[in-house]
Amino acid sequence: MARAPFNFAGTEIKAGTRQTVEFPVAKLYTHTPLHIPVEVVHGRREGPVLLVCAALHGDEINGVEIIRRVLRNASLRHLRGTLIAVPIVNVFGFVQRTRYLPDRRDLNRCFPGSETGSLGGRIAYLFRTQIMQNVTHIIDLHTGAIHRFNLPQIRAELKNPETARIAEAFGAPIILNASLREGTLREYADSRDIPVITFEGGEALRFDDVVISSGVRGVNRVMRALEMLPAKAGRAKPRNRSEIAATSTWVRAEIDGIMRPIVRLGQRVRKGQRLALIADPFGETETALITPYSGIIVGMNNLPLVNEGEAIYHIARFDELAEAEKAMDYFRSSMDPEAGADAVMPVHPWDEQQK
Ligand SMILES: [Zn+2]
To answer: What pTM was estimated for this model as a whole?
Structure first.
């Protein structure tokens, strides 16, 4: 018996087909209707319903490209289950090149939202009632804020075993066991017992090929772990290993000034090590930024002009730091173009660690 069609926003998508649906979400001041573009790939066989979404923060565009590449995967013809791909959730912010909505609210703090609320609440309400309604798993793609670059990493609430399973399957080098922040899509999904992971990588308003490639691989790996895609035949390449951080902390600037970074993204640092130098324009009063912890750099501020108290380096801390360093080494070697990455990798901060 053929699988039932997938009904979405008034459109019926037959099993074994795919379709782009323009999901109406709001209107501009001009009364021009605004849509969230959604691609539904409805496989012939029953299986999980995976939602992959990006740009909930409108300026976090790496995920948009990750989804474009995921949708070009030829093996989606053999998909088991259903893939719902939403490359741009915050269409307002995307058009304006900003994280926020026009009323300066953060859409990822508006969940669960309400039918009669303000713009953010209404979009969150529509998104969860129309798009999240029947999903069984979620991957939410994010990027660091503007001038902040994140190492590819997964954030998840690992108490849910299925969440932990897909977090590991993704294969990012680092997993942060991140608590749930109120109003986020992740918190709402978790409250409904939908396994959900957040991928973080790169910087707002920038494309980064290492981040994008690792995101594409990660989504495909999760689909294989969920048996939505067939396992890769004949390839016994060792899977990326992920190391779970015990905790993470931002190290902040102790003075205002101009910063010269010393350590790089992905690098292992030891307690007491110098991370950066901050000085006045003549370099007379220079202060070293020292890390009070040992760990791996998973995020950094790359704008050299800093104020006292500003978050500069995000350090993930581990019970077994040597294991985390190994996970980083696996990641670096697996992103080598020789190893079959999607694109030629440019030189990245984490390639040129201090020798
Ligand atoms: Zn974000």
So the answer is: 0.93
